[in-house]
Amino acid sequence: ADVLRRGFASGRLPSEADLMLAYGASRTAVRDVLARLRGAGIIERLQGVGTLVVSHRPGTPLPEAHGVEPLRSGVFSGRLHVEELDRQLIPMPPPVAYRLGEAPGAPCLRVDYVGYCDGEPQSVATNYVRGPEHEAVSRTPFTTDWYTMLEQAGLDVAATEFMIEAALADDLTGDLLGVRPGAPVLLLEQVIRDASGRPYDYAVVHCRGDRIALLSHATRPSLGVSPGS
Question: N or C: lower Cβ tally within 10 Å for the chain?
Answer without folding.
Answer: C
